[in-house]
Amino acid sequence: xxxxxxxxxxxxxxxxxxxxxxxxxxxxxxxxxxxxxxxxxxxxxxxxxxxxxxxxxxxxxxxxxxxxxxxxxxxxxxxxxxxxxxxxxxxxxxxxxxxxxxxxxxxxxxxxxxxxxxxxxxxxxxxxxxxxxxxxxxxxxxxxxxx
Length: 147
Hints:
Layout: H1 2-17, H2 20-26, H3 29-40, E1 49-52, E2 60-63, H4 65-70, H5 73-81, H6 88-112, E3 116-119, E4 133-134, H7 136-144
Parallel strand pairs: 2-3, 2-4
Antiparallel strand pairs: 1-3
Helix pairs in contact: 2-3, 5-6
Protein backbone atom coordinates (compact mmCIF):
# COMPACT_ATOMS: atom_id res chain seq x y z
CA UNK A 1 0.00 0.00 0.00
CA UNK A 2 2.80 2.36 0.91
CA UNK A 3 4.63 1.65 -2.38
CA UNK A 4 1.47 2.43 -4.36
CA UNK A 5 1.17 5.78 -2.60
CA UNK A 6 4.77 6.69 -3.50
CA UNK A 7 4.31 5.56 -7.13
CA UNK A 8 1.24 7.82 -7.42
CA UNK A 9 3.13 10.80 -5.99
CA UNK A 10 6.13 10.12 -8.25
CA UNK A 11 3.85 9.83 -11.31
CA UNK A 12 2.17 13.12 -10.43
CA UNK A 13 5.55 14.83 -10.04
CA UNK A 14 6.59 13.58 -13.47
CA UNK A 15 3.40 14.90 -15.05
CA UNK A 16 3.94 18.29 -13.47
CA UNK A 17 7.58 18.42 -14.59
CA UNK A 18 6.85 17.55 -18.25
CA UNK A 19 6.41 20.74 -20.31
CA UNK A 20 2.83 21.47 -21.36
CA UNK A 21 3.59 21.09 -25.08
CA UNK A 22 4.90 17.56 -24.55
CA UNK A 23 1.87 16.64 -22.41
CA UNK A 24 -0.40 17.77 -25.25
CA UNK A 25 1.54 15.60 -27.73
CA UNK A 26 1.10 12.54 -25.53
CA UNK A 27 -2.70 12.93 -25.60
CA UNK A 28 -4.71 11.29 -28.37
CA UNK A 29 -5.66 13.51 -31.34
CA UNK A 30 -9.34 14.17 -30.40
CA UNK A 31 -8.36 15.21 -26.89
CA UNK A 32 -5.38 17.36 -27.97
CA UNK A 33 -7.58 20.37 -28.83
CA UNK A 34 -9.24 20.21 -25.42
CA UNK A 35 -5.87 20.10 -23.65
CA UNK A 36 -4.48 23.01 -25.67
CA UNK A 37 -7.67 25.04 -25.14
CA UNK A 38 -7.46 24.36 -21.41
CA UNK A 39 -3.88 25.59 -21.33
CA UNK A 40 -4.60 28.71 -23.38
CA UNK A 41 -8.14 29.59 -22.30
CA UNK A 42 -9.44 32.99 -21.41
CA UNK A 43 -7.61 34.97 -18.75
CA UNK A 44 -10.09 36.73 -16.49
CA UNK A 45 -10.38 37.45 -12.78
CA UNK A 46 -12.47 34.90 -10.89
CA UNK A 47 -14.84 37.62 -9.61
CA UNK A 48 -15.77 38.51 -13.20
CA UNK A 49 -16.97 35.01 -14.16
CA UNK A 50 -20.77 34.85 -14.32
CA UNK A 51 -21.12 31.30 -15.64
CA UNK A 52 -18.84 28.42 -16.61
CA UNK A 53 -15.09 27.96 -16.63
CA UNK A 54 -13.12 30.45 -18.73
CA UNK A 55 -9.99 28.29 -18.75
CA UNK A 56 -11.84 25.52 -20.60
CA UNK A 57 -14.05 27.74 -22.72
CA UNK A 58 -14.36 27.16 -26.46
CA UNK A 59 -17.44 29.36 -27.01
CA UNK A 60 -17.36 32.24 -24.49
CA UNK A 61 -19.69 35.20 -24.13
CA UNK A 62 -19.60 38.48 -22.23
CA UNK A 63 -22.27 40.65 -20.61
CA UNK A 64 -22.51 44.25 -19.42
CA UNK A 65 -23.58 43.12 -15.95
CA UNK A 66 -24.48 46.57 -14.61
CA UNK A 67 -26.70 47.34 -17.60
CA UNK A 68 -28.41 43.93 -17.34
CA UNK A 69 -28.93 44.28 -13.59
CA UNK A 70 -30.54 47.71 -14.09
CA UNK A 71 -32.99 46.14 -16.57
CA UNK A 72 -34.47 43.71 -14.01
CA UNK A 73 -38.02 44.37 -12.77
CA UNK A 74 -36.64 44.65 -9.23
CA UNK A 75 -34.14 47.36 -10.18
CA UNK A 76 -36.88 49.23 -12.04
CA UNK A 77 -39.05 49.09 -8.91
CA UNK A 78 -36.18 50.42 -6.79
CA UNK A 79 -35.68 53.25 -9.26
CA UNK A 80 -39.38 54.05 -9.84
CA UNK A 81 -40.37 53.94 -6.17
CA UNK A 82 -37.24 55.73 -4.96
CA UNK A 83 -36.38 52.96 -2.51
CA UNK A 84 -33.41 53.97 -0.38
CA UNK A 85 -30.17 52.03 -0.62
CA UNK A 86 -29.51 50.19 2.61
CA UNK A 87 -33.19 49.71 3.49
CA UNK A 88 -34.56 46.19 4.02
CA UNK A 89 -36.78 46.48 0.94
CA UNK A 90 -33.82 47.59 -1.21
CA UNK A 91 -31.71 44.67 0.03
CA UNK A 92 -34.45 42.14 -0.69
CA UNK A 93 -35.17 43.53 -4.16
CA UNK A 94 -31.48 43.65 -5.04
CA UNK A 95 -31.03 40.02 -3.97
CA UNK A 96 -34.02 38.99 -6.12
CA UNK A 97 -32.61 40.94 -9.07
CA UNK A 98 -29.22 39.22 -8.78
CA UNK A 99 -30.87 35.81 -8.51
CA UNK A 100 -33.13 36.49 -11.52
CA UNK A 101 -30.18 37.68 -13.60
CA UNK A 102 -28.01 34.69 -12.62
CA UNK A 103 -30.70 32.23 -13.68
CA UNK A 104 -31.26 34.06 -16.97
CA UNK A 105 -27.52 34.16 -17.73
CA UNK A 106 -27.22 30.41 -17.21
CA UNK A 107 -30.36 29.62 -19.23
CA UNK A 108 -29.33 31.88 -22.12
CA UNK A 109 -25.78 30.55 -22.18
CA UNK A 110 -26.94 26.93 -22.25
CA UNK A 111 -29.60 27.65 -24.87
CA UNK A 112 -27.12 29.43 -27.16
CA UNK A 113 -24.32 26.92 -26.58
CA UNK A 114 -21.97 29.19 -24.63
CA UNK A 115 -19.80 27.41 -22.09
CA UNK A 116 -18.72 30.55 -20.25
CA UNK A 117 -20.05 34.07 -19.59
CA UNK A 118 -17.89 36.83 -18.11
CA UNK A 119 -18.38 40.49 -17.33
CA UNK A 120 -17.82 42.73 -20.34
CA UNK A 121 -14.35 44.23 -20.51
CA UNK A 122 -12.87 41.77 -18.00
CA UNK A 123 -10.99 39.52 -20.44
CA UNK A 124 -7.26 40.15 -20.03
CA UNK A 125 -6.20 37.77 -22.79
CA UNK A 126 -7.60 35.05 -25.03
CA UNK A 127 -6.50 32.91 -27.97
CA UNK A 128 -6.65 34.87 -31.25
CA UNK A 129 -9.03 32.40 -32.89
CA UNK A 130 -11.57 32.53 -30.05
CA UNK A 131 -14.56 34.83 -30.71
CA UNK A 132 -16.45 36.28 -27.74
CA UNK A 133 -20.18 36.94 -28.18
CA UNK A 134 -21.86 39.89 -26.45
CA UNK A 135 -25.11 38.77 -24.77
CA UNK A 136 -26.01 42.17 -23.31
CA UNK A 137 -28.74 43.17 -25.77
CA UNK A 138 -30.33 39.72 -25.70
CA UNK A 139 -30.42 39.56 -21.89
CA UNK A 140 -31.59 43.17 -21.47
CA UNK A 141 -34.36 42.60 -24.01
CA UNK A 142 -35.50 39.49 -22.15
CA UNK A 143 -35.47 41.32 -18.80
CA UNK A 144 -37.35 44.35 -20.15
CA UNK A 145 -40.11 42.10 -21.47
CA UNK A 146 -40.53 40.66 -17.96
CA UNK A 147 -42.87 42.55 -15.69
